[in-house]
Design brief:
Elements lengths: L1 E4 L5 E4 L8 E5 L2 H10 L7 E6 L2 E7 L1 E10 L6 E9 L2 H27 L11
Antiparallel strand pairs: 1-2, 1-4, 3-7, 4-5, 6-7
């Protein structure tokens, strides 16, 4: 049995032979489709593992969701959700790093200002 395991340890059984660009997960109904697609958040795609017979067959970091689609099975008793993932490009990784640095800097500056100048936290929009 093949599985995909997301960062938060959510597991889904996937069709044999899955690849990053072609992950197929079966769902019994629309609620299941929503649960599958909702699980593939940016945070959960930061660390992903594939297993085959409970042995890790691949580990990935910094993935991005390319697309989701679904279709009824041939016997029309369930749905197949197809997910396409890819690794982040170097540019995307650099942008993430810059964004994290910017947020840390902004937080530090805000903390310094409110510590040095008492009452500044209540001056938003003041002229």
């Amino acid at each position: 049995m093949d599985k995909i395991i997301l960062k938060n340890k959510t597991e889904f059984e996937v069709a044999e032979g899955a690849s990053l660009g072609n992950i197929q997960i079966q769902s019994k109904d629309f609620d299941g489709i929503k649960a599958i697609t909702d699980a593939f958040t940016a945070d959960n795609l930061a660390e992903v593992a594939f297993t085959h017979n409970d042995e890790v067959s691949g580990k990935y970091t910094d993935l991005v969701s390319e697309s989701f689609s679904y279709a009824k099975t041939e016997d029309e008793t369930a749905y197949i959700v197809t997910i396409s993932l890819r690794e982040k490009t170097d540019i995307e990784k650099r942008l993430d790093s810059l964004e994290k640095g910017h947020i840390a800097n902004a937080t530090a500056i805000d903390s310094i200002i409110t510590d040095i100048i008492p009452g500044m936290e209540n001056t938003e929009g003041a002229e």
